[in-house]
């Protein structure tokens, strides 16, 4: 396994570093001893997610759509972790905004990475590109089946990474995350995932709203495992030009998740079945993680129940507020 200590004294740019996944990556890098630049427009990101004032952290407020700015921050970096994106809900409401940020922004980052000769750029993609898969568990080479504008833009970003690698030798790696949850996923963010929403309701003693029959499944991945996988992809020579599923290989239904959250919080709230939303068009999702296990020697270390317990502990202790390093 690549040794993450090699990030010590490296300069790493994390776009979207004030967001949920990004801030976990930033904190991990600072703990290792890296210098980190965060580029974030604070659309969903929060300063509270970051240890502002840390001597090795520079926070730049701005958008990945601003090419001159992207160029400047990329030039100062040896490695780039590209997490910045408009999320699926914004994307459904305004596909053009999604297009400009998720596709245009990614192209800007890639162009700047190529120009500066950055060592490696890792791109955060999404399992949503698989849509409703024909086979379970899903392999990286299975067909993409894009059911939302968001999955189109995330997949376009992947394809640009591949094209830059093939055409110009730009060192890229793609990580396809599946339903990330955990520390720093704030329930007060209207775009947060189902785990944070269920926790918020359960803690308030309110019913958990389940869209559809609750039999739909997802592969929920704890954010610390996602952080580790992303940083390994940023270091490993084997990851160059590759795409990796980042998941657990464990298929959990929304009903099962709801029951676990009730158990973890100890609040026996009701389950309230409501209509499906337009983004709830994926029935089953579980990913094959053999490739990342084999190439990067990464396996998830946190089970769903353990991850939910740790998330609940964080929600209780921090109330979702300050970042600590
Ligand atoms: N959370 C998940 O379950 C999940 C699953 C699959 C893929 N992903 C991908 O992982 C990445 C991080 O997602 P997240 O869950 O942390 O979301 P998030 O919304 O918490 O983080 C995204 C960050 O990007 C910033 N951002 C948005 N537009 C920007 C712009 N134009 N310029 C600069 N910064 C901008 C936001 O302010 C935020 O800090 C995204 O690329 C997302 O597509 C997440």
Would you give an account of this structure?
- This protein has 325 residues and is α/β, with parallel strands linked by helices.
- The chain has a domain at 8-178 and 222-247 and 287-300: Rossmann fold (3-Layer(aba) Sandwich).
- 39% of the residues lie in helices and 16% in strands.
- It contains 10 helices and 13 strands.
- It has helices spanning 20-32, 67-75, 88-93, 95-116, 149-168, 194-203, 223-235, 254-265, 290-296, 304-318; strands at residues 11-15, 35-40, 57-61, 79-82, 120-126, 172-177, 180-181, 208-211, 217-218, 221-222, 243-246, 252-253, 271-274.
- The strands form 4 sheets. The chain has a 7-stranded parallel beta sheet with strand order 3-2-1-4-5-6-11, sandwiched between helices. The chain has a two-stranded parallel sheet with strand order 7-10. A two-stranded parallel ribbon has the order 8-13.
- The longest helix is centred in the N-terminal third of the chain and has 22 residues, at 95-116.
- It starts with 10 loop residues before the first strand and ends in a 7-residue tail after the last helix.
- 48% of the residues are buried.
- Nicotinamide-adenine-dinucleotide binds next to helix 1, strand 2, helix 4 and strand 5.
Which terms would index this structure?
alpha/beta, two-stranded parallel ribbon, 325 residues, binds nicotinamide-adenine-dinucleotide, 13 strands, Rossmann fold, 10 helices
